[in-house]
Amino acid sequence: MIKSSKKTKLQLILTIIVISSIFIIPSAPKSYEHAFVEKSDPAASQSLDVPPTKVDVYFSDPVDIRYSEIKVLDSDGKQIQENDQHYISNDQKSLSVSLPPNLKNGIYTISTKVLDQTDGHVTEDAFAFGVGQDVPKSITNNLASNNYQEVSIPEAVARFPSLLGQVIVAGIAASSLWLWGPISRIPRLKDSISQTRIKIDSAMAKMAVIGSIIILASGFAMIIVQAFSINAGILDAISTKFGNMWVLRMITASALLGLSFVIYQKTKSTPAIIPRTYTASLLGLSFSVLLTTSLISHGAATGQIIPLLLDFCHNVFASLWIGGIIYLAFVVMPQIKQITDSHISLSTILILIPRFSILVVAVLGAVVITGPFLLYALENNLALTLASFYGKVLIVKLGLAAAMIAFGGYHQVFVSNKAHAIISKLAIKNTRMQDTTIDAKPILSRFYTSIKIEAFIGIALIASVAVLVDSGLPSSEFQNQLQSLQNKVFALTTNGNSNISGLTQTGFVENGSRIVLSMSPFTTGNNDFTISFLDSNKNPIDMKSTQLELTQTDSGIGPITIDTNKTDTGTFTTNTDFGFPGHWTVRVEGVQNKENALNLVYSYDLFVKPKLNSIQIDIKEYKTPGNSSTPRYPVYDSSRNKIWVGDTSLNSGKILDFDLGTKKYTEHKIEGLNSIVYSALDSHDTLWYIDYTRKMLGHYNPDDNSNMEYPIPNKDFLTSMAIDSNDTIWITSHTNDILKFEPKTTKFDAIKLPDKSDPLGITIDNTAGKIWIAEGIGKLSSLDISTSKVTEFSPSGNYTMEGPTAIISDPETGKVYISEHEGHAVSVFDPLLKTFKKIQLDPAPDNLPYGMAFDEYHNLWVAQHTIDKISIIDPRTGDIIEKNMPSSNTWVQWLASDSQGNIIMAEERANALAIATISAGQPQSNQTDISSAIPKFYFDYAQVMAPSITGLLIVVAFFYCKGVIDLRNVTNQIRKTL
């Protein structure tokens, strides 16, 4: 009767918790991760002719007005907003503040610091608007670069023990309910380990108490950190909506501790196996604690019930897995090892391993479903995720999970199989282990050691989850990442013709402090400079004065000392010229206001280039001897300062060199030569060429006029050639092979490319050790030189490459440029982000983009086949201009550049080479263009994850069936030996 009464009370408690949860979930505040600014009025970087009377800011999440603020600062750093901050029309996702009338012309900064009602995170932002003038890009960059914080270490540290505690309690309760069923159906084994089982349950009760205490202690740490974040007291923090959820969590955790303590006291006073109703109640309460975690998670942040439930289920399944490992490692195995009868101990783990594996495999199947779907709900752009801090931590988490799975496989393959082999022998002999000389201790010790290692890996995985929970999702970080890419001169290639004006670079000095240098428009001529000094927490450092020293390193001009003006705490500005293009060193030296403090010094190495529309281009044509040759593929010889080019006229029998100093041709007659299209120089400055009609690979030495030829085994149409740093020759053709020729052995090898790839252009990135191949089917392949591994890439979504033909690798950034012969465009592939971007050229049907080359200022020149024009692209800004060829019907296909950055063009039908010389021209006036183009990431998440999930589920189903069969077999065999 007493037992029935207690059981009824436990059921009542669980019922109340479930009903409460049903009411809590629909009323959970909607959120979109941490609260960030979605829009504002005035907008960021907006220039107004009429001064505004108020500032309205709209956030992605409801914010707590009591612990949120908007500041508006003038150019002197003085706050000018009125003291009337309020919600806009009671919309808790918006804040407004009034401004004084008749603001003067100038630049104003809006600073926001808000508390997210849902997840309790404090986020900051800052942006500028102008009255009567434009906002310089340097100010925009400087503000953006200091806003994003990847993760709050105090919050992550405070949450980690809480996550660990709930995993422990949920995992040990679930495992206790699940694991012992098969053993209880073998009476002799059940009786033999009954006392051990009592000790295990006693240890489990103690572990549940410890886990519950950890949850409560961590909860107090979380609210203390929250109070510190909002600069308020504990009671103030509890009064927030996040605090209300925290109260619910603490009540549930207290109930969990109370139940755990009751169970522990009962096992201590009257040692016995814990009744299943108590364990089930413990499990139910732990699930309630897990639910409160999900209610302040990224899943709840979407404002939708499905991601919230996915997050909860994912947490439950992960807790069953990791908590079960902890249960085996620190509760079960210490007691199993104390069993003196080796037969009993070995039989016990032989049943526990496959029994637990069935649970883990089922859990992993659920994780395979909930994990990817949850990530899809939070962020479905896989390329963006991988580029973010969130994605990097996610990779670490998945790596730790893979290590745990590997240990599980080890237990199945080595530990379980060895134990199984021993029991099988005993079953055949119909004997017990004490009647044999077999020692089970090594097996038990090995399993005990490996399961503890797996448990510690699981704890590390929980730590990574704590970081994920506290970090912002990729979408909130990625804009800041793109802005930081502007810190590299050639870092960002945009879509279309949008300009990126300005450059920001950060230099790190002593004690984690940093000096942020911003320049606008960052080109030759007049530029605005802004220098900001920040401490390790990105707070301004009080500085007395700052000087710049500018040195033009190419010409040895300087240093030129420039004084600056202080505009705010730790911020200085000046205006000066980059008189010449090329490499500059900008040295910043700041004097601190603090006595005896060292000066803060940093030097920046920059490449300054003129704007595309200011460069001057002079193209001159040089007819071939007799005006009879048809040159197609020019190659620059730096050691001789010559251009080598083949004559594609049939039976020409010659190679031409053009001396860039004398501007004269020399004909090199080669007996039997028909026509040359492709050629390249090796490290010894000897020329390799392809006689494409005869399918011969030729090797010509200009020093002694010697020539060797090697028949090419592939008789198909040859499309390109290149030579790597080891002097290996690589040749593509219309088949799916790439030929590799080793000059030392004079042998050809073939490497298979994807089917129907139709390889065309080829380029080599010797720094990365990769060969890039443009595939005519609209894809890009990379070939690892050292391993010969081929990887294929293709644009996602609606993005297609039409007729990819020529290809070139950017030595500055490693990006790959592919001309689209039928697409009238150039595609840019980023090997780091695995993304494609398109730069649209002249859409005329006769414009057939072909060969490419970089000039002195690292602008990309593109031959526009058949229309007698050349496109010139600035990869940094995406600007494009066109230059007419001096003659008509030139039929330019291929380009090259010399050591001076001049562009060499082979005019096939004009029977000439054309040389384009480039100069900087007159510097442009300081006009700031604040427009920016943020690249889009066309990566179809579903196309990747759908087949992956299907494949993994098939694997999970296989191992689940295997686990069930293994458990049945070992159970039958153990029955025979007992």
Overall description:
- The protein is α+β, with helices and mostly antiparallel strands and 978 residues long.
- The chain folds into four domains: 393 residues, no CATH class; 108 residues, Immunoglobulin-like (Sandwich), CATH 2.60.40; 109 residues, Immunoglobulin-like, CATH 2.60.40.1930; 304 residues, 7 Propeller (Methylamine Dehydrogenase, Chain H).
- The chain is 37% helix and 29% strand.
- It contains 17 helices and 45 strands.
- It has a five-stranded antiparallel beta sheet with strand order 9-10-11-15-14, with helices on one face.
- Helix 3 packs across helix 15 and helix 9 packs across helix 11.
- The radius of gyration is 35 Å and the shape is flat.
- 47% of the residues are buried.
Which descriptors apply to this entry?
978 residues, signal, 17 helices, four-stranded antiparallel β-sheet, Immunoglobulin-like, alpha+beta, five-stranded antiparallel β-sheet, metal-binding
Distance between the termini: 37 Å
In this structure, how is the largest beta sheet organized?
5 strands, antiparallel
Low-confidence stretches: 1-33, 433-437, 478-500, 922-941
Number of helices: 17
The proportion of residues in beta strands is 25-35%
Strand order of the largest sheet: 9-10-11-15-14
Write down the domain tally: 4
Report the radius of gyration as a whole number of Å.
35 Å
The count of strands amounts to 45
Report mean pLDDT, rounded to a whole number.
Answer: 80
Structural class: alpha+beta
Organism: Nitrosotalea devaniterrae
Protein name: Putative Copper resistance family protein
GO molecular function: copper ion binding
Main location: membrane
